Amino acid sequence: MKKIKKTNAARILDKLGIDYEIKTYEVDEDDLSAVHVAQVVGMDISKVFKTLVTRGDKTGVIMAVIGGADELNLKALAKASGNKHVEMIALKELFPLTGYVRGGCSPLGAKKNYPVFIDSRALEQEKISISAGQRGMQIIISPKDLVTAANATVSNLID
């Protein structure tokens, strides 16, 4: 069996003693969507969450974790994070800000400890899947443990 290289996200969970499972999958460079990830890892899309990186007018960079098929409500995130206005960062900023690439952005282990907001629907699931911090690797974790590990705020982030 091939040994899986630990990502920063996995090391953070290990250090905190949090239980998780790693699932690897074949990456399709033409389809990095959470819907595709759900299909290849064999999970329902309601359990696969994506991490979006935004910037608030007062707080700066914020990470939002929402369901893979959902659209982020920027107004809801602005309100939850104490901003008047929040916008998505430009794709070219993703790696310099977080150390992650599109399709491999984790709410854990970014270059800096940015505030993390998790959509409240995550807590309806027993386990959810998030990026482990690289394409082709997902972390399956209890949403409550993710909130703890990411020191996240739970809020309604979608319509």
What descriptive keywords fit this protein?
about 160 residues; alpha/beta; YbaK protein; five-stranded mixed beta sheet; three-stranded antiparallel beta sheet; 5 helices; about 25% helix
Discrete helix count: 5
- The unreliable regions are none
The helix/strand class is alpha/beta
Number of domains: 1
Order of helices and strands: HEHEEHEHEEEHE
Mean residue pLDDT: 95
The oligomeric status of these chains comes to: single chain
The shape is globular
Classified by CATH, the class is Alpha Beta
The CATH level-2 architecture is identified as Alpha-Beta Complex
Tell me the CATH superfamily: YbaK/aminoacyl-tRNA synthetase-associated domain
Largest β-sheet summary: 5 strands, mixed
Kindly identify the CATH topology.
YbaK protein
Spatial separation of the terminal alpha carbons: 43 Å
Strand neighbour order, sheet with most strands: 4-2-3-5-8
Over all CA atoms, what is the radius of gyration?
Answer: 14 Å
Helix content: 25-40%
Q: How big a fraction of the residues is strand? A: 25-35%
